[in-house]
Amino acid sequence: MFESASLSHRIEKAAYKREEPKLRQALLNAQYDLKQNGKFTTLILIAGVEGAGKGEMVNLLNEWMDPRHIEVHGFSEPSDEEKERPRVWRYWRALPPKGKIGVFFGAWHTQPIVNRVMGLSSEGQFDQEISEILRLERMLVDEGVLLLKFWFHLSRPQQKKRLHELEKDPVTSWRVTKNDWILFKNYDGFAKVCEPFVRKTSTAEAPWLVVSGADARYRSLTVGRTLLAAMRERLDDKVVPQLPDRTPPLLPAIDKLNVLRALQLDQDLSKNAYTKQLEELQGRLNRLFRDPRMKQMSVVGVFEGNDAAGKGGAIRRITGALDARAYQTISVAAPTEEERAQPYLWRFWRHIPRRGRFAIFDRSWYGRVLVERVEGFCQEADWMRAYSEINDFEQQLAQHNVLVVKFWLATSKEEQYRRFKAREKVAFKRFKITAEDWRNRKKWDQYETAVCDMVDRTSTNVALWTLVEANNKYYARLKVLRTMADAVEAALARIDKPKKSRTKKDRVKNGRK
Amino acid sequence: MFESASLSHRIEKAAYKREEPKLRQALLNAQYDLKQNGKFTTLILIAGVEGAGKGEMVNLLNEWMDPRHIEVHGFSEPSDEEKERPRVWRYWRALPPKGKIGVFFGAWHTQPIVNRVMGLSSEGQFDQEISEILRLERMLVDEGVLLLKFWFHLSRPQQKKRLHELEKDPVTSWRVTKNDWILFKNYDGFAKVCEPFVRKTSTAEAPWLVVSGADARYRSLTVGRTLLAAMRERLDDKVVPQLPDRTPPLLPAIDKLNVLRALQLDQDLSKNAYTKQLEELQGRLNRLFRDPRMKQMSVVGVFEGNDAAGKGGAIRRITGALDARAYQTISVAAPTEEERAQPYLWRFWRHIPRRGRFAIFDRSWYGRVLVERVEGFCQEADWMRAYSEINDFEQQLAQHNVLVVKFWLATSKEEQYRRFKAREKVAFKRFKITAEDWRNRKKWDQYETAVCDMVDRTSTNVALWTLVEANNKYYARLKVLRTMADAVEAALARIDKPKKSRTKKDRVKNGRK
């Protein structure tokens, strides 16, 4: 993998001086065109060997381009804020919007490699992390991100020479730490891990571009010209032949039966019985959320359902049981301009709660496979890949002790009609019913199909869907409360049993010995 | 994942009788259109729970359609022939060509699930197998295969009922074996493995289509209609919006240095010295191939190089040292019609040698990233993904104790000119030099770039490239022989150390205790 980059590439000073101003100008132009075009994000990853000029390259890119439209992020040890979220959260957080260029230094590649070299992870874990990276990068590319991955390489003798040179020069000697020499001694250990890593994470859409780091002028021109060519190709909208439709249709409806129609939507429950049970359940939920083990997990509640199915009422019965500092309700409507400039899941990642906290999503990431699918706001290929992206997302949450509880509140078409009409009659409820609600209702069957596909494809061991019979709003609210309390109770119980994957160190950090 | 399929779907006999003839006719039409169109393969995978009617469905598909254009393959225990090749070899072997429909029953999904349920593989291995499956299926889809994966499901009570029913009826009681009941007792164990398996191997391009298996008429119509819709969609060439170019450019040439130009092509070696060393090396190679450990491995030699670089001569010096029964030389030219109707790697998979044997490829799968890239025979996206597909392919070979040794024979442009001219002068060598050779020569620089990219992207720990300085053909031949002998010797030495992954049972099978 590193054959070319191990050669002694060199650019003479004079040649560099001729080339650099032209390259800079062209890069600036590309940067402005990107800003104007606003159609994609350029994301540059800088990785590779110590002493190969990664830091200098990042500085140079900043110097070459307009710093207002370039965002540089160096990732080292995660902050407390970041540790309380799944590993990829901090990369989502730093992702620049469309029209901008991001430079990630030490991104999601660093930790898996270091852990493997240090023997902190097994071959199997390493392979799993590689799969996660492949899925993340594929998702970014599918979302239109121009992902350029530069791997800065030095051969063993090149690295030795470079460290000596830096050390000798009083101006740069601070750059070489004792740690660098320790790392150098383990050059072969790193090489043994990096080779398969670079091989396995090189795909057609996001190949590693291995750059020889020995000569500063050579590596600068290499990165600069590659960046320019890649941006120009995309900006100038190079025509590619049409690809065949690769998404096969999902199962057709063969009979009248589906998971929604199988529900007994009308349930008996009197207001009196409701009031009594409501208090009991709210008390139970309140106690659960005050459990000290709650500090080691977080909860995400997802509320989806027909229009006027009573999502808001159910949510208020939950929040009514909780300390206002413990939860946050996120109402998901059409994406804002800021959100549209990001990959689809970005606007949900940003609301993933810290430890001990509860995020309630009133509508959620499932909009992709519901309203966006039915209304044609995205293409078939996009909502089809959303199922596995969502499953991935929820698995990452689950792995990080984030409990995900999902509800679909289902009413009959007749009950919905009754509620719409009732809302129209009451002045202070009229804002709740719009022309859009009536329009959606016309697509009842299409929504029904989309909901059934959603349940089939995303109700998983890591995050089950609970279908709630909601013609009787009292029954629905109690089912939601009970399901939530049961799920939290079960999750708290799991915390007592330390998982195999959790290391001793982690447990100590979490405050338990 | 199995919510809809667990419902009691049922189709009445009368409705089925009305529907079936129409569906059959439409499927037959689609089958003939596919044959005429000849643009893709339809591959149907049938998997899922025992007793859910998988076998009946396969029979029915055969009955419904024209059996001349449908190929059914049931996979159970691998044959001796198959055991001597990497796991996926038998699926490649069975892959139907474009224009045909293939039905795979118990394909690459079965073993990973069974092994995991039985505790024969770890969570990590299971995840690795899932990654392999994802890569294989993505490659098939990228190659234009319409892949339809049906998962036949029964809930626990449904499966119990079904087994009882089959058992009671004297006509079908033979279908239920003791083993079926043993499997049934482990229903929950299977479910625990199948759920994440189905979830993780469901992608936008190849989602699992989960079919309720309880009612024969329902499952037949479901599969039939889905198959019809998927084929029609592709046959009728549904227009999809143009996707952006997702393959960034590889590194540009910044200076004159590359892995080929770094070679010292002229090497000193007299004919006398050559003759003496040749015999020694051939003797050594002969002894190595007669080593009893050779029965546990196989060897693949890959010869690529400039036109007239002496590949044939080098190959003959190797085969001259071997028993004619031990090796096979495969000359790779433009693909035949049969080969063009298959995914790119198919024509190489078919030549993967059995244990103890040596396959020599005179040109190889690298044509994709050399001639096909330079001449524009395939699109950029295709040759870009070929790098990782080839690395995958070679890793699968390496994991199965197939040693892969790859040579690039390099001459200078001047030396090539000399040889072309010399060949034209000698009557019996004239066939060796064609107008195409002269045409290729004009694209020398483009080929040089392609070769350097190839070496950088596919010289890996599992299969290294050896660059051979070939202006002096004597020197080149000896370097090839020596490299080959060294590689075989090292591989034989590795056989003495049993790998962790090899089980005791395997070792006994291989004749060692």
What does this structure look like?
2 copies of one chain form a homodimer. Chain A is an alpha/beta fold and 513 residues long. In chain A, 39% of the residues are buried. In chain A, 50% of the residues lie in helices and 12% in strands. The first copy, chain A, has helices spanning 13-37, 54-64, 80-83, 89-94, 110-117, 123-142, 156-168, 178-185, 187-200, 216-235, 271-289, 311-319, 337-340, 346-349, 371-374, 380-399, 413-425, 435-442, 444-458, 473-496, 504-509, and strands spanning 42-48, 70-74, 101-105, 146-153, 208-212, 298-305, 327-331, 358-362, 402-410, 465-469. The model of chain A is unreliable at 499-513 (pLDDT under 50). In chain A, the strands form 2 sheets. Chain A has a 5-stranded parallel β-sheet, sandwiched between helices. In chain A, strands 7-8-6-9-10 form a 5-stranded parallel β-sheet, sandwiched between helices. At the A-B interface, helix 6, strand 4, helix 9, strand 5 and helix 10 of A face helix 6, strand 4, helix 9, strand 5 and helix 10 of B.
Brief account:
The structure is a homodimer of 513-residue chains. Chain A has 513 residues and is of the alpha/beta class. Helix content of chain A is 50%, strand content 12%.
